[in-house]
Design a protein that fits this description.
209 residues, eight-stranded mixed β-sheet, 8 strands, Bifunctional nuclease domain
Length: 209
């Protein structure tokens, strides 16, 4: 397994306030929780993860349940899930498998949402690299409301016009915004748990570095 990995815990799953049918899987460093790692996932995977966490109708079965049953019959266990690469906002993951009584471990590339859905069922740990966590993670401490002094420092920006619920913002709109306004919008996005928008803003800020 790769060095300098950060163990993650599932913080929650929220419905996107921007795009219908899309959810945001929120991961955080286990035992810390100051930084959140938002990952955009589809509805089916969101329901499957929620089901495995015991938050949905247990009578409903998903393909991940079939894989779990199949693996147990043939003594295959998932040792870990690793989110190892981030390219253009897309997270790449692999599943680390090991068959009982065998020493060799196998890596299988997987869609991150599918990998997480299986990790929950196998009670396997989820990891990511420090590089990805530093690049895509959002500091929750930035989500607290600005003080009066900080508001004065932002005089003249569009900060006071930001609504609680955010409209869709294109990449072109984000690119035209100043870094100061992007940071203010990021602050409000985290306050209102609009993690999808926050992730896109963070990506734009990172691009400018």
């Amino acid at each position: 397994m790769e060095k300098k990995l950060i163990k993650l815990a599932i913080r929650g799953i929220s419905l996107s306030q921007i795009q219908s049918g899309i959810y945001v899987l929120l991961l955080e460093e286990e035992g810390a929780g100051r930084i959140k790692l938002p990952i955009i996932i589809e509805s089916l995977q969101a329901q499957s993860i929620a089901s495995a966490l015991g938050k949905r109708d247990p009578s409903r079965s998903f393909t991940h349940d079939l894989f779990f049953t199949f693996s147990k019959i043939y003594y295959i266990n998932i040792k870990a899930v690793v989110i190892y690469k981030l390219v253009n906002g897309i997270f790449f993951s692999y599943i680390l498998l090991k068959k009982e009584k065998e020493k060799k471990e196998h890596k299988i590339d997987s869609k991150t949402s599918d990998a997480v859905a299986l990790a929950v069922r196998f009670q396997a740990p989820i990891y990511t690299t420090k590089e990805i966590f530093d690049k895509a993670g959002i500091y929750f401490e930035n989500g607290f409301p600005l003080s009066q002094e900080e508001n004065e420092n932002y005089e003249g920006s569009f900060e006071k016009t930001i609504p609680i619920f955010f409209k869709e913002r294109t990449q072109q709109e984000l690119e035209k915004m100043t870094e100061k306004d992007l940071n203010v919008l990021l602050n409000h996005a985290v306050i209102n748990e609009c993690y999808e928008l926050a992730a896109r803003i963070k990506k734009e800020l990172d691009r400018r570095e």
